[in-house]
Amino acid sequence: MSDETLIKVEGVSKKFCRDLKKSLWYGMKDLGNELFGRRHSGNGALRPDEFWAVDDVSFELKRGECLGLIGRNGAGKTTLLRMLNGLIKPDKGRIEMRGRVGALIALGAGFNPILTGRENIYVNASALGMTKRETDEKIEEIIDFSEIPQFIDAPVQSYSSGMQVRLGFSIATAIKPDILLLDEVLAVGDVAFRTKCYRRVDELRELSAVIFVSHDMGSIARVSGTVMRLDSGVVASKGIPDKIIGEMETGLRHQHAHGRNVNQCDDRIKKFNISPPFFEVAQRNEFRIQVNIETRTPIDGIQIWISIQDFAGNHVAECVLDQRSFNNVLITGENLWEVVFDMLPLRVGEYSWQVTLVDLCGRILAVSRNEVHVSVVGTGISAHVAPCTLPIKNITALF
Ligand SMILES: Nc1ncnc2c1ncn2[C@@H]1O[C@H](COP(=O)(O)OP(=O)(O)OP(=O)(O)O)[C@@H](O)[C@H]1O
Questions:
Q1: Which amino acid residue places its CA nearest to atom 29 of ligand 1?
Q2: Nearest CA to ligand 1 atom 5
């Protein structure tokens, strides 16, 4: 690790407005005041319906350091990354970034959908300060790493979410950035690609300052030297990974023990349950789970990501339920599906499931982590080599 500070954040805050009409009105007023050189309340007190999404956050990061950013949905992690990447302006405070910044924040962000993958590589690389010659030298490496050479001359709008993540990550890291910002969006990639990405982050960590946002505590603990937990925009705690992750998990267990729904994240989601919470299944036998989502408003298009981890926290199996598998529209109130899997192609042992509810833009609506446990029983002779995809037999809407 060097002594060179690459990221310096001092008292940074960002506010948003919950009401769209008011938000537009405030925005126009602030713009008018700025044009006429008048002070505006953009950096002052909150106006009706406004709230601090990020509130007085300060930290520094040196080359060679990796900061893991954790917190429940809506804690302000992405907003902080977007400010660091210059996509939005803080209302208060100061951000200093030194060197080239590689970032993978929102799904599809930074891509022009009508341009091909190859054209987007050139556009992005030039925005990151690379010359055409430098990009020419790197382009094969970028395409190779993304593993999508057969689609590279197709428009990005035809790419799946996973393909966009592959290309975005390959570009962001191929430029050998001084600063690398990685949001949860990496989770969209499949297990094998994610593993490859973590390996590359390990390599880059020596040379860059890395900020890594994730809900996957195993990955956070593996990659980060320090972890910072945000809670309602405020830095709730910061320190070594084990301590901060432990605190967060204890908090979640406490809420659970006191009857609150730990999985509730986005305001629109009232309940997100997977049942049964524990089940035993014989190797290679069919098994079924129920997914129950209660919403306050309709949500047009969701995906459900299921990821299974073994006792050591390694991802061993996963699958995505999207519009190809079921009618993925949520109605107001109760939505209940039964999902039948053909078999669980895993070795005998104990596993936990992480089930994540995601909207069509890859934004996480709710996470059910380590709430569902499965015990695989059988002869012990296995089975599929992990990681593997869970074979879905069918999904039925129960109501
Ligand atoms: N453009 C916006 N306008 C209004 N509110 C916003 C906007 N962007 C984010 N928010 C709100 O700011 C808060 C922080 O959001 P942010 O996306 O930073 O959280 P997060 O910790 O990254 O959550 P997640 O884990 O779900 O990605 C949330 O309440 C969110 O609804």
A1: 74
A2: 16
The highest-level CATH class for domain 5-249 is: alpha beta
Q: What is the pTM of this model?
A: 0.68
Nearest-CA residue for ligand 1 atom 3 is 16
Distances in whole angstroms, Cα of residue 217 to Cα of each of 70, 364, 375:
8, 15, 21
240 is written with which tokens? 């070594």
The length of the chain, given as a count of residues? 399
**Are the CB atoms for 321 and 395 separated by under 8 Å?**
yes
Choose among 164, 78, 16: nearest CA to 363. 78
With CA atoms as reference, report the closest residue to 233 among 76, 89, 81, 90.
76
Q: How far apart are CA 244 and CA 238, in angstroms?
A: 7
Three-class DSSP category at 378? coil
Q: Please list, in sequence order, all residues whose beta carbon lies within 8 angstroms of the beta carbon of residue 294, skipping any fewer than 6 positions away.
A: 269, 270, 271, 272, 333, 334, 335
**Is the backbone of residue 56 left (phi > 0), alpha (psi -120 to 50) or beta?**
left
pLDDT score at 233: 93
- Which H/E stretch holds residue 393? strand 392-397
CATH class, domain 269-397, is mainly beta
For 45-66, what is each residue's pLDDT tens digit? 788 888 999 999 999 999 999 9
Q: What number of other Cβ atoms are within 10 A of residue 31's Cβ?
A: 12
Q: Where in the chain is the domain with CATH 3.40.50.300?
A: 5-249
Minimum-distance ligand 1 atom for the alpha carbon of 17: 4
Q: Is 368 touching ligand 1 by the criterion CB < 6 Å?
A: no
Structure tokens, 364: 């996480």
Confidence of residue 263 (pLDDT cuts 50, 70, 90): very low
Q: Where in the chain is the domain with CATH 2.60.40.2550?
A: 269-397
Query: What is the identity of the amino acid at 179?
Result: I
The phi-psi region of residue 76 (left if phi > 0; otherwise alpha if psi is between -120 and 50; otherwise beta) is left
Residue partners of 31: CB distance under 8 A and separation at least 6: none
Cβ contact 215:356 at 8 Å: yes
Nearest CA to ligand 1 atom 24: 73
Of 204-218, 335-349, 378-392, least confident by mean pLDDT is 378-392
Would the CB of 78 count as within 6 Å of ligand 1?
yes
Which residue has 């909207």 as its token pair? 359
Residue 247 belongs to what H/E stretch?
Answer: helix 241-257
